[in-house]
Amino acid sequence: MSIPEVFLPLFEVTFFTAWDFAQNECVSKYCNLLTLFYKNAKSDISSWVSLIEKLIDIEHLTDIDIIEDASASQLHMQEAKNVFSGIAPVVFGRGFVSEYGFNLGIWDFITSIMGIGDAYYAIVDRPDFIHACLNRLTDSTIAGIKKANDLHLHYDINNRCHCSYIYTDELLPGFGESKGPTSENCWALGLAQLFTGVSPDVMREFELPYISKMAKYFGMIYYGCCDRLDDRLDIVKKIPNVRKVSCSPWSKRKNFAENIGTDLIMSNKPSPACLASDNMDWEEVRKDLQYTVDLAKANNVNLELILKDVSTVRFCPDRLKKWENIAMEIVCK
C-alpha cells in the first residue's frame, strides 16, 4: 500500500500572543506551577500546597486573556519569507495555544493548583466547592475561546489534535485548506485523566456538564488521553461534537470496541512497554495488534493505531520501523 505525498514543504509562523489566567499580582502565583511545593525546614519532605481553599480564592481566577502582537507577527513573517523564498511557502500558523489544539481539560488545571489528593477529597467532602471551581474555569475557558474567535487566532490549519492526525474534508477540505481561524472550524482536546480513579457517575456529574459547555464551540473534539474510558463511553458519547475517543493501554479493548459504536473513531494507543525490553518479542507485538484490529472489524469500528509515550527503545531505533511495518501489514490485509 503506497501513500501519496500530497503536501508541499511548509513553514509556519505563529502569531505572537499571550494567554493568561491571572491578571494581577494577587493570583500571578496561580500560573507559576513551579512554586506550589512547600519544603519542611526540618526534613527533606516536600508537600503540595493548595492555592484554592475558599470560595473567595476562586474569584481570583480570571478569564483567559489573549493579546496579539501584530507588529511582531508581521516582522517574523517577513523574516521567514526572506529565509525561505523559493524553497517553501510561508503561512501564518495561528494556533496560539499549541499544535495539539485548544485544551479543554480544566481538571488538569484544578489539580495543578490543588493537588490530586485534595481534589479527590474535595469531590467527596466539598462537592459544591468543586462545582464552583468548575463553573469558574469553564467560564474562563469559554471567554478565551471567544477572544480567540474575535482575533481569528484559532488553529484552523492544524493537522494534529493531541497525538492524532485529523485530516477530514469536513474541517480541512482539500487536505489542509482552512475554512477560517474560528473555533467552529477547528478541533479541540478534552480530558479528565484523574477520573480513571472515580466511578462513571462522578464523571457524569463533575465532567460532562462542563466539557459539554466548552465543546459546543468547536467543530470536532478528541476526548481522552491516558485515562480508562471503556467503562463510560455512554457518557463520552454525549459530549457535543466528539469525533475521536482515546483507547489507552488502561482501557479494556473488547469492551471499548463493543460500545463505541460506528460513528466515532477508536483511537487506540498500544502499550509501548514492549519496546523497552532487552529482547523484542515480535510475535507478541503482532498478536497484540491483530487482537485490536480483529475487535474493530468484528464491531464495524473505525480504528486508528498510535504508538506513543515511547520512553526508550534500548538504543535500537529500528524497533520503531519494524513495529510500523507489522502494524501496516495487519491493517492492510
SS-derived structural category: alpha/beta
Specify the helix fraction band: 25-40%
Oligomer: single chain
SSE string, helices as H and strands as E: EEEEHEHEEHHHEEHEHHEHEHEHEH
Categorize the overall geometry.
globular
The low-confidence runs, each spanning 5 or more residues with pLDDT under 50, are 1-10, 15-43
DSSP, total strands: 14
Biggest sheet: strand arrangement: 7-10-11-12-13-14
Biggest β-sheet, characterized? 6 strands, parallel
> Beta-sheet strand percentage?
5-15%
> What gap, in angstroms, lies between the N and C termini?
10 Å
Secondary structure tally, helices: 12
- What's the overall average pLDDT, rounded? 83
Please explain how this structure is put together.
The chain is of the alpha/beta class. The chain has twelve helices and 14 strands. The strands form five sheets. The chain has a six-stranded parallel β-sheet with strand order 7-10-11-12-13-14. Strands 1-6 form a two-stranded parallel ribbon. A two-stranded antiparallel ribbon has the order 2-5. The chain is globular.
